[in-house]
């Protein structure tokens, strides 16, 4: 039987200081100690259960981190103030000057910019590959490769990464596999498929409300301890701490994530079938026409569906903008970046969330000038929503 991350969260009992059914929210940046020796031991990382300073740990962030570790079936987790903070801190903890990373060329624009434009300043080299071409991944590996980095389902082309095979390639070379699972929480459990680390933008599906920005890193206890070490921990020293109030809010929302992912998936599948019948050029992993449909089906936790993300190619930016304008006017959703919201969101990827990727690279990887990425919402009547979409396409 496939993994059930929803049950692992359900089985995690977390109470507040006074027996609150919702864990108490930390409203303090620093914490007292009864003895000076205990403070010193906490600074040295030798004390568990003691809190030092909120940039290091605080109870609210620990509650959320424990829930995320349960969801991902990892030993531990760390929460950050954004998804990019999670990605950058995790990679910088693993890599030093002279190291090498192999990554998917199809990835979120901010991640691409960090890998392509920022890491070379510190003599960290990056090779961009077609992550679905395992031979290309293998050929890109070097003796100094420290990480293979990919997204479970890539942004925005919705390619599916073969996590077990990528893990084999990484581990055979002494490297680690890091997977961004932002598009597919609960649908995939990357750590169970061989990934060493899992990162998230919790801004998206995990929180689901588009009312905050947050990230997460899931991995071994040893790795999380190194991340938070006061002397050389990347997350501790760069300081992307998540506000405790937001941690508390996300923790509440995570308990409905399994229901939301099922509904996002069901709605997206309905639209994908209807739009494919109309003859539109679209990508959705739940369709048999998708190149990695069988791989997705093999690796997924089936109870949660194929996800809420689909992409439609309208050919040109002009046509894409025209259709998106009409969709917003018809109240199908909003012309906005981001995803995982309860309303449908849509944007022209090459001119928004993937605009950091040079135009020539976009063409090489198959990103059309008119590709529209849709994050399908939680609408109750998808038949009525489809009628609105159809009127816009006419």
TrEMBL record:
Gene Ontology CC, one term: cytoplasm
InterPro entries: Cys/Met-Metab_PyrdxlP-dep_enz, PyrdxlP-dep_Trfase, PyrdxlP-dep_Trfase_major, PyrdxlP-dep_Trfase_small
Molecular function terms from GO: carbon-sulfur lyase activity; pyridoxal phosphate binding; transaminase activity
GO biological process: transsulfuration
Protein's UniProt keywords contain Zinc: no
Keywords for the protein's UniProt record, in alphabetical order: Aminotransferase, Pyridoxal phosphate, Transferase
Family designation: Belongs to the trans-sulfuration enzymes family.
Protein name (Swiss-Prot/TrEMBL): Aminotransferase class V-fold PLP-dependent enzyme
């Amino acid at each position: 039987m496939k993994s059930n991350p929803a049950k692992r969260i359900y089985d995690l009992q977390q109470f507040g200081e006074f027996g609150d059914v919702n864990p108490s929210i930390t409203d303090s940046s620093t914490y007292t100690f009864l003895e000076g020796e205990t403070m010193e031991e906490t600074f040295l990382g030798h004390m568990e259960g003691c809190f030092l300073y909120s940039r290091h740990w605080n109870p609210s962030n620990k509650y959320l981190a424990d829930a995320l570790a349960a969801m991902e079936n990892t030993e531990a987790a760390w929460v950050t103030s954004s998804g990019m903070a999670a990605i950058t801190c995790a990679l910088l903890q693993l890599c030093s000057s002279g190291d090498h990373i192999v990554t998917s060329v199809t990835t979120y624009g901010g991640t691409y910019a960090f890998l392509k434009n920022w890491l070379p300043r510190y003599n960290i080299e990056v090779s961009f590959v077609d992550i679905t071409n395992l031979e290309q991944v293998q050929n890109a590996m070097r003796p100094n490769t420290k990480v293979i980095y990919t997204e479970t389902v890539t942004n925005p082309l919705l390619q599916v990464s073969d996590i077990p095979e990528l893990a084999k390639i990484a581990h055979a070379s002494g490297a680690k596999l890091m997977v961004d699972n932002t598009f597919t929480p609960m649908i995939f459990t990357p750590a169970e498929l061989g990934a060493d680390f899992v990162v998230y933008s919790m801004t998206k599906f995990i929180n689901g409300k588009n009312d905050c920005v947050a990230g997460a890193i899931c991995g071994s206890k040893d790795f999380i301890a190194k991340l938070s070490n006061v002397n050389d921990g990347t997350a501790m020293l760069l300081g992307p701490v998540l506000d405790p109030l937001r941690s508390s809010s996300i923790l509440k929302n995570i308990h409905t994530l399994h229901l939301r992912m099922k509904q996002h998936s069901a709605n997206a599948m309905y639209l994908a079938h209807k739009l494919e019948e109309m003859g539109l050029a679209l990508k959705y992993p739940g369709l048999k026409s998708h190149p990695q449909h069988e791989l997705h089906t093999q690796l997924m936790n089936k109870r949660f569906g194929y996800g809420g993300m689909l992409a439609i190619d309208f050919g040109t930016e002009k046509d894409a903008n025209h259709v998106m304008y009409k969709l917003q006017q018809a109240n199908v959703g909003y012309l906005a970046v981001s995803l995982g919201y309860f309303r449908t969101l849509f944007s022209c990827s090459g001119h928004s969330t993937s605009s950091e990727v040079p135009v020539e690279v976009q063409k090489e990887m198959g990103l059309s000038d008119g590709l529209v990425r849709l994050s399908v919402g939680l609408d109750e009547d998808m038949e009525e929503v489809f009628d609105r979409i159809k009127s816009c396409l006419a």
